[in-house]
UniProtKB/TrEMBL annotation:
Residues 1-20 form the signal peptide. One of its GO terms (molecular function) is fructan beta-fructosidase activity. Residues 360-503 form the Glycosyl hydrolase family 32 C-terminal domain. It comes from Mucilaginibacter lappiensis. GO terms for biological process: sucrose catabolic process. Its EC number is 3.2.1.65, 3.2.1.80. SUPFAM superfamilies: Arabinanase/levansucrase/invertase, Concanavalin A-like lectins/glucanases. This is Levanase/fructan beta-fructosidase. Keywords: Glycosidase, Hydrolase, Signal.
Length: 509
């Protein structure tokens, strides 16, 4: 991601003075079940590839400082998306006498048929495709590099760049193999034109322009991080639609939008009106997400960067979202994207919680029900799944990060009258957020009078999935060390049909 665009997206940019002064460790905000680097800055996920039973995560990284700069590709691997092995920097910035080249966002592919001829001794190479940002030349172009050691280190292609339009803002290539035409397909952002350019290649070296998509949807700010993936409709693997993701700065924070349509190997055709905006996440943090395309069970798993907000953390800054399994669902408003916390994680919650869990059914509720007693669930690292039969209630939900003896708390709720899922941070985050983001909402209707909420709080992040992934709100929070209370609430009488809570404070140990 370009630094200027980063500042635009982070409307609440932190001053360089506060960067320099922050040296106090903040373990109370270090996530336990979300990815963070051990030290220093991270932003966009890059090069997501599943290989030899492991998820590879490359990511935008400053190896030297806890702020944006020296952009390189950090690297980590995991078998379960919770426990990460941190590896050396895979692709460092390139410094020469006259030029600095930063390694911006991109993708990585396993070249199974060795179309690039980079493979050795019959072993398929991994090829990384990324944006080379050269600030002195005010230019962004597309580079490739290849690995012959399973992605641990990369060699730059001698004839880089492979695409150069002599443009300042032209970035974030995402590449996949398209079997019907037996070629590689790249989507890349024409940032200020609000377009996604689609290229094709037989060998990952020579690229031909195929088509352009856009402008469409939200166009008030530049486009970044496009990716095009096929998803099944209503669980039927024979019914596929293509989904194009685009990131952009929204009206008051990050925005990810998506388009549903058809792809014929050359052109993406949007099935919705040009001005229709479909939103991936309704919060103020989720951005630059791309997917593992090749996860077990043919899953498509989306991973985003959760933007930080105003608070400083140390000795790291930045974290990834919970991974999302992706589907398409037919609704009375047309096809919609469904996102659920990846089942690779959710199916392991009992193991990850090490027995610290609470499961109940059919609880009559009016007022409050405290969940943070008995030394469990009082550490701001919990995963909660609750279904409310709304009954006569006007509002229902979950209170998290509550500080006893004060009014500090965060409310995750459903407003029956407004038909909205919401996150209310007005009593906790007024110093950290723009006033327009203290209450974040997503339109959502109950299903036969029932609302389901999955609430994931992990020290400094809060992600809410409404009605089994129909709506998502992601945000960053910075509660006091002793603001750890969690409870259910109901304004009016409701029935809690199902309640499941897992304490994940030791999930990564």
């Amino acid at each position: 991601m370009n630094k200027a665009k980063l500042i635009i997206v982070l409307l609440f940019a932190i001053s360089s003075r506060s960067f320099a002064q922050q040296k106090t460790a903040t373990p109370q905000w270090r996530p336990t079940y979300h990815f963070t680097p051990p030290t220093n800055w991270t932003n966009d996920p890059n090069g997501l590839i599943y290989l030899n039973g492991e998820f590879n995560l490359y990511y935008q990284h400053n190896p030297f400082e806890n702020k944006w700069g020296h952009m390189s590709w950090g690297h980590a691997t995991s078998k379960d998306l919770i426990h990460w092995k941190h590896l050396p920097v895979a692709i460092p910035e390139i410094l020469s006498k006259d030029t600095t080249t930063w390694i911006y966002s991109g993708s990585a592919v396993l070249d199974k048929n060795n179309t690039s001829s980079f493979g050795l001794n019959g072993q398929a190479p991994i090829v990384a495709i990324f944006t080379a940002d050269q600030p002195k030349q005010k230019k962004e172009s597309q580079f490739i590099a290849y690995s012959n050691d399973n992605g641990l280190s990369y060699n730059l292609y001698a004839n880089n760049p492979v695409i150069d339009l002599q443009m300042h803002d032209f970035r974030d290539p995402n590449v996949f193999w398209y079997e019907p035409t037996k070629q590689w397909i790249m989507t890349v952002a024409m940032v200020d034109e609000h377009m996604v350019r689609i290229y094709g290649s037989k060998d990952l070296k020579k690229w031909t322009k195929l088509s352009d998509f856009g402008p469409a949807g939200y166009t008030k700010n530049g486009w970044e991080c496009p990716s095009l993936i096929p998803l099944s409709v209503d669980g039927d693997p024979t019914r596929l639609k293509w989904v194009l993701f685009v990131s952009s700065g929204g009206d008051h924070g990050p925005l990810m939008q998506y388009y549903i349509g058809d792809f014929d190997g050359v052109t993406f055709k949007n099935n919705n009106p040009t001005d229709k905006v479909l939103t991936v996440d309704y919060g103020d943090a989720f951005y630059a997400a791309i997917a593992w395309r090749d996860a077990p069970g043919n899953k498509k798993i989306l991973l985003g960067w959760l933007q930080n907000g105003r608070k400083e953390t140390y000795p790291w800054k930045g974290q990834m979202s919970i991974p999302h399994d992706l589907y398409l669902k037919t609704t009375d408003e047309g096809l919609k994207l469904i996102q659920i916390p990846s089942t690779i994680i959710s199916n392991s919650l009992s193991k990850l919680s090490k027995g610290k869990k609470l499961i109940k059914e059919n609880i009559s509720l009016t007022g409050r029900l405290d969940l943070s007693g008995n030394n469990s669930f009082n550490n701001n690292a919990n995963w909660l799944d609750v279904e409310f039969n709304l009954g006569d209630a006007k509002k229902v939900g979950v209170i998290v990060a509550e500080k006893m003896g004060s009014d500090q708390k965060i409310t995750v709720g459903y407003d029956v009258i407004k038909k909205e899922l919401y996150v209310d941070c007005t009593r906790s985050e007024s110093g950290n957020k723009d006033t327009r983001n203290l209450i974040q909402t997503a339109p959502m209707r109950s299903v036969n009078g029932v609302v389901r909420m999955q609430v994931l709080i992990d020290k400094s992040s809060l992600e809410v999935f409404g009605n089994s992934g129909e709506k998502v709100i992601s945000t960053m929070i910075y509660p006091d060390k002793d603001a750890t209370g969690i409870s259910l609430f109901s304004d009016g009488k409701t029935m809690v049909r199902s309640l499941k809570v897992w304490d994940l404070n030791n999930a990564n140990k």
